[in-house]
Amino acid sequence: MNWLEMPSHDPEAEKNTLSCLLNGATPETLTQEHFYLEKHQTIFAALFDLSGQMQPTQFELIKELRRRKTLDSDLNKLITEIAGAYVPEHNLPYWRGRLEEHRKLRVMRRAVLEAESLEPPEVMDRLERGLMEAATQDDAQRIFTGLEVAQKAKERIELRASHPQRLAGIDTGFPVLTKRIHGLNEGELVMIAGPSGTGKSALAQNLLVNIGVHRNIPIAYLNTEMSERAVTDRLLSILTITDNDTIRSGFYSKEQRSVLDGAVE
After folding, report:
1. Distance of CA 149 to CAs 92, 143, 144, 145, 156, Å?
2. Cβ atoms of 22 and 56 closer than 8 Å
3. Separation between Cα atoms, residue 237 and residue 221, nearest integer Å
């Protein structure tokens, strides 16, 4: 199925996520954008506000929605259904993951549809903004209080003290770079910027080889400027330490051919 034709939301995941929140899970890693259906957004907004004051219950949720004048018979019935499902709070990461997949799908679909009506120079900019929006971490969409920030910092210090290590993130394969950024860490976006022709793509492809090939860590590589052939040739050059011009020319020695075949395998 074409990804543009995939369902925009997952009703089961939305309901079960709300059930987790009613059963003690905290909504701090969720935003209203994770929910597609308006009725689910309405319930989540009330649960989110209540969670800052108390552990929400079905009674308190209905009371809050009545206060907001958004409660009707259908919503009341839905809340009863969600509460009756009784999805344990520890299941939240799974259901949140399913919501996140559909959120990203909606963001990218919106970007593609909007790009269709733009002039060529604006298309790539809109698609790139769509990718950035889809990749945005939930923490970046929240406003944290000073107390929350201090608590998170305390937890990280305790974790680091109990598991000391010189390198917190993934080794890039470039000692100076790894030391400067403390490795590649989950939840961080590292941008490689510079004028044209300064080696940004070459650096990214070396990172791909160092991390994806040598360390066997899954990587998604997107390149909107180079062809598949050009990217593959450069990766082969990095893997085999063979001049890129030699690879493109086809004039290989037996040893070079053997090394290239081995790299592809």
Report:
1. 22, 10, 6, 6, 11
2. yes
3. 17
User: Element (H or E) spanning 232, and its range?
Assistant: helix 228-240
Q: What proportions of the chain, in percent to the nearest 5, are helix, strand and coil?
A: 65, 0, 35
208 phi/psi in degrees, rounded to 5: -60, -45
**Bridge partner residues of 170 (DSSP):** 184
Element (H, E) at 31: none
Contact 41, 50 (CB under 8 A): no
Which band of pLDDT confidence, cut at 50, 70 and 90, is reported for residue 178? confident
Helix axes 38-51, 73-85, angle to 10 degrees: 70
Residue 208 predicted with pLDDT over 80: yes
pTM for this entry: 0.52
- Measure the CA angle with vertex 215, ends 211 and 218; round to 5°: 65
DSSP 3: G
